[in-house]
Design goal:
The chain is mainly beta. It folds into three domains: 59 residues, SH3 type barrels; 60 residues, OB fold (Dihydrolipoamide Acetyltransferase, E2P), CATH 2.40.50; 58 residues, OB fold (Dihydrolipoamide Acetyltransferase, E2P). The strands form three sheets. The protein has a five-stranded antiparallel beta sheet with strand order 4-3-2-1-5, with no helix packed on it. The protein has a five-stranded antiparallel beta sheet with strand order 8-7-6-9-10, with no helix packed on it. A five-stranded antiparallel beta sheet has the order 13-12-11-14-15, with no helix packed on it. A hairpin with a 7-residue loop joins strand 2 and strand 3.
């Protein structure tokens, strides 16, 4: 396989690490050889990397599986998950999960696995989760000049995020798990 086979979402090895291609562009300059500019995510570290490959450069494809898991609980050893089909349980350290404080018990997640090593790479939560607000200050009418003012709110998982002033305690809201942003109030 070479850079001519690039497509978004392709899994390949770069510097010994499994990566997922996010973006690529074939460039044919007037002088010199063609090349491929690329952006990809290292599945072990979560970092986004950029690299320029020469056109036709060989790449090593990697097989990555997505497996459904359910978050059970957190203890001193880490975050405990159960496969939803085989019921096998695994423990992941906090570094492998982005925004783990937005995850509540029973939450369904997807694990990215390297099947030949039977090793989990990342734990991906759904883009939006519904969480209940356990504490927030009541809004005081007329205390802000702008229409998009925010206040801090504590969620049922203990996470703290910023929400609009009209949100009250015991409201259920959606939260973006990527950037921790308020989504919307869930209708009852």
């Amino acid at each position: 396989m070479d850079t001519g086979d690039f497509k978004n979402g392709l899994y390949f090895k770069f510097n010994g690490h499994p990566c997922c291609l996010i973006y690529f562009q074939h460039v044919k300059p007037g002088k010199g050889p063609a090349f491929v500019k690329s952006k990809f995510r290292d599945l072990e570290t979560g970092k986004t990397l950029e690299n320029t490959f020469t056109a036709g450069e060989k790449i090593e494809p990697v097989t990555v599986e997505r497996r459904p898991y359910q978050f059970l609980y957190k203890d001193a050893s880490g975050y405990n998950f159960m496969h939803t089909e085989t019921f096998e349980q695994i423990v992941l350290p906090e570094e492998m999960i982005s925004n783990p404080d937005l995850m509540k018990e029973g939450q369904t997640v997807e694990m990215m696995y390297l099947p030949e090593e039977e090793r989990p790479l990342t734990c991906e939560m759904p883009t939006y989760v519904e969480l209940k607000i356990t504490y927030t200050e009541p809004a005081v009418k007329g205390n802000t000049a702008s229409t998009n003012a925010l206040k801090e709110a504590t969620l049922e998982t203990g996470a703290k995020i910023m929400v609009p002033l009209f949100i009250q305690q015991d409201d259920v809201i959606t939260v973006n798990t990527v950037d921790r942003a308020y989504g919307e109030r869930v209708k009852k």
